[in-house]
Amino acid sequence: MFFGGHPFGGGMPGGMGGSGHGGGPPRGDVDTTKLYETLEVDKSASKKDIRKAYMKLSRTHHPDKGGDEHKFKEISAAYEILSDDDKRAQYDKYGLEGVSGDDVGAAGGEDLFSMFFGGGGRSRRGASSGPRKGPSVNHPLKVSLEDLYNGKTVKLAVNRKVIQGTPTECTRCKGQGAILEVRQLGPGMITQMQRTCDACNGQAQQCQYKSERKVLEVHVEKGMREGDRITFSGMSDEVPKMEPGDINFIIQEKDHDLFKRKGADLLVVKEVSLNQALCGFSWKIQHLDGRELVIKSRPGEVIKPEMNTKEALPFVKMLPDEGMPSKGNPFVRGNLYVMFRVKFPEDNELPTEVVEAIRKLLPEPDVPEEYDPMEVEEVHLNPADLRLFGKGGAHVSSNEAHDEDEDGGARPVQCQQS
Ligand SMILES: [Zn+2]
Q: Which of 210, 232, 253 is the last residue of a domain?
């Protein structure tokens, strides 16, 4: 069979499978309402109403949005016929059979139906491939953190292909979008293959395009984030017999010199000297809306190298509600975190008299150990790297180390004791 099951079940007069259902006279009681019921419109519905109904239903039932694929195909197929004046007239008179029979010959009829009723993914328009909508275009839109904070409207010019004049039926495929190739495999054996028409790219129509320049006002909402999209529905290139796709602008957040963002929260990094960490600091920053904030430590507030937790977490403090506005609710803002780095003096940077003074002033000075220098060893420390911790001592010889290896592969001797 050329096409798989059709979504309208077995309720159709005359059947649809197999061969030869070409243009016979209408049978007694043909069903000419099913397609209208599928789109939930009246038989007298206008073209506009049919389109409206289709748009609404196809959105609801789109498989990408969790809709039922079968139902979706049914809706697309019904719209395919009812949106075309000729086909609709045929359908009203003769039911589904009339649409296939009069429109094209027997072989083509199967093709037509496979197209409408989902021939297992081989149909040229792919009833399973989604709504009859042209391809959408995504444009990245780089936006500064300031603009994401304050919101902004950007005017962007796009060029789109617009159909000029009336599209004409493709002469190559006679408006089928696909070409049926009959090949002889051997004596008495032929095979039929269907391939997309290359003259019209499977669109069944040929048309002239012109380029149209269009200025779009792109409204960047307060609080938008990386990856958020601003959609201009149906603004992509025009495609014959399809709804044009969308133009999407995808937000790309530019890096900021001062602020880092996560969700609605902002983070700044502040390096303070040991003096500032102990004795206080004030720091003027410009916020994303241009306000100047002076961040001041409270009297006696001590900035530490890390949090007093088991994990060595960086030392942070927070300014509530000074983060980013939330998208859709800009009055609710995130928080502004300040992460500190305490810069200690370098070796030998402090003169002896300063050290003596500090020793007297700071709490918990060193209490010298009492010992006889002749009986103990006095030692000093070298610089070190914690990543090398555990790697001290003599290297184990490679033979001993690999004896217990399960894969027992012959490995080259890597280590040698020197
Ligand atoms: Zn063609």
A: 253
Same domain? For 377 and 260 the reply is yes
Same domain, 73 and 190: no
Given phi > 0 = left and psi -120 to 50 = alpha, else beta, which region is 372?
Answer: beta
Q: What region does 64 belong to: left with phi over 0, alpha with psi -120 to 50, or beta?
A: alpha
Surrounding ion ligand 1 within 5 Å at CB are: 170, 172-173, 197, 199-200
Over the stretch 228-271, which tens digit does the pLDDT of each residue have? 999 999 999 988 778 899 999 999 999 999 999 999 999 999 99
Tally the residues of the chain.
418
Could you tell me which residue, 245 or 416, shows the higher pLDDT? 245
Asked whether residue 164 falls in the same domain as residue 249, the answer is yes
Ligand 1 mean position to 108 CA, how many Å? Answer: 14
- CATH code: domain of residue 117: 1.10.287.110
pLDDT at 398: 58
Q: Which CATH number belongs to the domain containing residue 189 in this structure? A: 2.60.260.20
Q: Give the pLDDT confidence of 163-205 residue by residue, as tens digits.
A: 988 888 888 888 888 888 888 778 878 888 888 888 888 888 8
Residue 229: half-sphere exposure toward Cβ, Cα within 13 Å: 10
The upper half-sphere exposure of residue 150, i.e. CA atoms within 13 Å in the direction of its Cβ, equals: 13
